Amino acid sequence: MLTVTNPPDHPARGLYQEKKSDFIGLACHVDSLDQCQDLVDRVKGDNPKARHVAWAALVGAEQGRAAERMSDDGEPAGTAGRPILNLLQQSGTSFCLITVTRYFGGILLGAGGLVRAYSAAASAALSAAGKAPLILSQTYLFRLTYPQHDRLRRLLEQAGGKVRSEEFTDRVNLWAQVPLAGKEAFEAAVDSAFQGAVAGQELERTVQVGSGI
């Protein structure tokens, strides 16, 4: 999956015009759905003469576990928020909020026209946005002796993982993250290298934003 890299203060922008109505799309990165309403209210505050600000957001990186929210903001049901959400789902874009602000031009568009217009404005904003892959990772806690520590760090590097934090006492507690795509291979490498003497305790799964594309 992908996310957009534009922060809420600098969203990507797209414009679509249909029968004298202006549809202004904005796309930005969000970390949670809890952020969305405040951001939507900010867009409404910036556009006091707009008739509608429809929006949709998708958060989550695991298939079947994404959370979503949307609003038609007074447009006929299913003609505004749903097309925006469909775009996010079909494009594989998550941790993203898209708003579409409509300035009414005096001509009714009908349900089909509204769906096309909101989809087009949202698509224009998404196309203008910077993008980066989402990397789903498994977090582990390892309890190691000092000789085991350096060897495990090398295995992490080979697996594309990273050390999140370390705690040094008479032993080493090491918290690490490994991309989920390489989880099984990493665990097999650890088991082979330490002959079963070291095993990571699986903790939460997390999502990181990769390098921009």
From TrEMBL:
It comes from Parascardovia denticolens DSM 10105 = JCM 12538. GO terms for cellular component: cytoplasm. GO terms for biological process: regulation of translational initiation. Gene3D superfamilies: 3.30.70.240, Impact, N-terminal domain. Residues 19-126 form the Impact N-terminal domain. Residues 143-196 form the UPF0029 domain. This is Putative YigZ family protein. Belongs to the IMPACT family. Pfam families: DUF1949 (PF09186), Impact_N (PF01205).
